[in-house]
Amino acid sequence: MTRTHLAANFVIPAKMKAWVYREHGNAADVLGLDPELEVPEVQEGQVLVKVLAAALNQVDAMRVNGVFQLPGFSLPAVPGYDLAGVVVKAGRGVKELKVGDEVYGYMWHAKKDGTLAEYVAVEESYLALKPKKLSFEEAASLPVVIQTAYGGLEKAGLSPGKSLLVLGGAGGVGTLAIQLGKEVFGASRVAATSSTRKLDLLKSLGADLAIDYTKVNFEDLPEKFDVVYDAVGPSERAVKAVKPGGSVVTIVEHNKALPPPAFSFAATSDCSTLEKLKPFLESGKVKPMIDPKSPFPFSQAIEAFSYLQTGRATGKVVIHPIP
Ligand SMILES: NC(=O)c1ccc[n+]([C@@H]2O[C@H](COP(=O)([O-])OP(=O)(O)OC[C@H]3O[C@@H](n4cnc5c(N)ncnc54)[C@H](OP(=O)(O)O)[C@@H]3O)[C@@H](O)[C@H]2O)c1
Question: What's the pTM value of the predicted model, to 2 decimals?
Fold first, then answer.
C-alpha cells in the first residue's frame, strides 16, 4: 500500500484556496480564486484529501455554464470531479482508507465542493489507492474517463475476438477506450477516428485502423464493427457502422430517442473499476494520456477551462501542482 508520511506537525488548516463560481456562465467570466474558503468537514464515510492534482472534464464546463444542473445543487460551488492526493483525515465509518494513503478517484456529482481546491471531502467508496507506477498528475487524469470507457465497453458486450470502432479516439475517453478495448477486453481489431495530425497517436495507443474524419466518412467504409463506442455523436451515423447484431454505445447523447441498436451510458464513480484495472496500469499496458499543453498550474485553471472547451485536447487536461 502506498502511504505518504505526513510531517509530524502537519495541521489541517481552517481555510484553503479554491476556484469558485457564484453564478453560471463562461468559466473565464465566472470562476474566481477564493483564497479563504472553509476547508470542508468530513461526513460519515468520507475522507479529507489534500488534492495534489485534478483534471477537467467537459461536464465541469457544462456545470459551470449551467447547461447541466443537478437536483439539489446550489451556488456558490467549486468545480472538478477528478482528483489524486493524500488522505489527511478519515471520518466516522471509514473502513479501508487511512491517513497518509495516496488515492485517486472522482467525486460523483459533488453538490458544491469539487476538486479544484486544496482539500476535498470525498466518499471512501469513490477512491482507490493510486497505482505506484503513476504520478499524481497521471492518476488524476484517469478516474472519469477510464470508468466511462470501461463501463461503456462492458455494457456494449465487447469480448475477445470482437471488433471495435471508437469515435473520438484522441479525446480523454477515446484514448482509454482504444487501450481498454485492446488490452482488457481482447478486441481482435480496433479502429478509431481523429483528425489528420492525431492518427499516429491512435496507432500508438493500439488502433489497427486510424480513420481521418476530415477525409473519410467512417459510416461509408465497407468494414463494419461488432461494437461502436461513440464519444462524438450523432448516433444516426454511428449505427451505420455496426454489424447486424452488434451494439452501439453513446456517451454523448442522453435524454433523446436513439436509433437502434444505440443506447446511452453514463459513468458512476466506483472504486471497484479502478481496482480491477490496477494491474493494467501498474504493468503499463494501459497508460494515462495527458494533453501536451498540460499540466496547467492551479493558478491557470481558467486557461485550462478555455483550452478544454476548444474540444481539441489530446487526452486529458490536468491541473498540477495544486498548492
Ligand atoms: N456519459 C458519460 O458518463 C461521459 C463521461 C465522460 C465524457 N462524456 C462526454 O463524452 C464526450 C467526449 O469526452 P472527452 O472527455 O473524451 O472529450 P475531449 O477530451 O474534450 O475530446 C476532445 C477530442 O475530441 C476529438 N474530436 C472532436 N470532434 C471529433 C470528431 N468529429 N470525430 C472524432 N474526434 C473528434 C478531438 O480530436 P480532433 O482534434 O482530432 O478533432 C479531441 O482530441 C464529451 O461530450 C463528454 O461530455 C460523457
Answer: 0.98
